[in-house]
Write a structure and sequence with these properties.
Elements: H1 2-32, E1 39-52, E2 56-69, E3 75-78, E4 83-93, E5 96-106, E6 124-127, E7 132-144, E8 154-155, E9 158-166, H2 173-182, E10 188-190, E11 194-195, E12 199-203, E13 210-211
Parallel strand pairs: 1-13, 3-10, 7-8
Antiparallel strand pairs: 1-2, 2-7, 3-6, 4-5, 4-9, 9-11, 9-12
Length: 213
């Protein structure tokens, strides 16, 4: 039982460390880019649903992420079970602009992924120049009702822009650099976060929203 508790604690600690590293790395990596990065990400809203809470509605936006290799060499891109992404939403309330930031994660430590083999395994996709890969994520955010105070992670009804900063790696940077060198004959392992161009969407109150479950 003690060992099981320790294992869970270590897993939880790893998640916290990965999330913190992702946030810091995302800011730094996006600020550093000297030339054009070979990996480009675009986002498209493909669905939405509302559910009603006590003081706000929860808006769930389904977004399709499309990764494209815009470089001249093959890219190796992680597509496994563990994924972190930050959603930045910009809007205005009472004439004043605001930003809401939501950090999402999909982390499964029940079964360890084989990510450090002699060659890229099933957790990776290889993109030739011009090649693409698509996946979907869900961005959840609270939409306040009239007269309610907007919190730091909620938005007001109206027009907004959404930008997603997505992780492309969750293990250590040291391991990523080792694998990049090991797999160089296959392609270039990409492990820095990538940001989409902001896209526009409208948040409403949706009086017909069902109860959140």
């Amino acid at each position: 039982m003690f060992d099981e508790r320790m294992s869970r604690s270590e897993s939880a600690l790893k998640v916290v460390c990965v999330v913190a590293a992702f946030v810091l790395l995302g800011v730094n990596a996006l600020a550093q880019g000297g030339g054009r990065a070979p990996l480009r990400a675009t986002a498209e809203v493909v669905g939405r649903r509302y559910c009603a809470g006590e003081r706000l509605n929860l808006l769930q936006v389904r977004v399709r992420l499309r990764y494209e290799n815009v470089g001249a060499e093959r890219l190796i891109l992680y597509r496994g079970k563990n994924f972190f992404y930050q959603s930045k939403i910009h809007g205005a309330s009472g004439g004043k602009p605001y930003e809401a930031v939501v950090l999402n994660s999909r982390y499964n430590d029940a079964e360890r992924e084989p990510v450090s083999g002699a060659r890229p395994g099933g957790a990776f996709v290889i993109l030739p120049p011009g090649g693409t890969y698509e996946t979907e994520v869900v961005v959840g955010v609270g939409v306040v009702r009239d007269g309610a105070e907007r919190g730091s992670n909620s938005i007001a009804p109206g027009e907004h822009t959404l930008q997603i900063i997505a992780s492309t790696w969750y293990e250590s940077r040291k391991l990523a650099e080792e694998l990049r060198e090991r797999w160089r004959s296959v392609g270039l392992l990409w492990f820095d976060p990538v940001a989409t161009e902001p896209l526009k969407f409208t948040a409403g109150l949706e009086d017909t929203a069902g109860v959140c479950r």
